[in-house]
Write a structure and sequence with these properties.
This protein is an all-beta fold. It has a single domain (about 1-105), classed as Spermadhesin, CUB domain (Jelly Rolls), CATH 2.60.120. It contains no helices and 9 strands. It has strands spanning about 1-5, 20-25, 30-40, 45-50, 60-65, 70-75, 80-85, 95-105, 110-115. Strands 1, 3, 6, 8 and 9 form a 5-stranded antiparallel beta sheet that branches. Strand 8 (about 95-105) and strand 9 form a beta hairpin. The protein binds calcium ion (CA). Calcium ion binds near residues 45, 46, 86, 90 and 91. This is CUB domain-containing protein. Keywords: Disulfide bond, Glycoprotein, Repeat. InterPro entries: CUB_dom (IPR000859), Sperma_CUB_dom_sf (IPR035914).
């Protein structure tokens, strides 16, 4: 239920012209919490987008760029799609970790219980 996603080529800087996707799935009934432990991309032009569901038609729950550390986001779906885009010049790197959270379907609260 835990994992880490590294920018392409990490710990070297990521290449230009990237469009990378990661689909994170946890068992139904769980949401997903992600947070960046390292976020150092070219501001605005290189960014990470997160959708609360399996594809880009799902609600977008976050877009991250630049060098703001300790950003985090929760999903209510048990799947999230993560996309990383980089443009033609200037790179950087990022590391994000995710874990599944037991989601109480009768309320909007996440139980602060780490499943693994
Ligand atoms: Ca760039």
């Amino acid at each position: 239920m835990n994992g880490t996603i590294y920018s392409p080529g990490y710990p070297d800087e990521y290449p230009n012209f990237q469009d990378c996707f990661w689909l994170v799935r946890v068992p139904p009934g769980n949401g997903i919490y992600i947070n960046f432990t390292v976020l150092q991309t070219e501001p605005i032009y290189d960014f990470i987008t997160v959708w609360d569901g399996p594809d880009q038609n799902s609600p977008q729950i976050g877009q991250f760029s630049g060098n703001t550390a300790l950003e985090s986001v929760y999903s209510t779906s048990n799947q999230i799609l993560i996309k990383f885009h980089s443009d033609f010049t200037t790179s950087g790197f990022f590391v994000l970790s995710y874990h599944g959270w037991y989601y109480l379907s009768v309320s909007t609260a996440f139980v602060p219980f780490k499943l693994s």
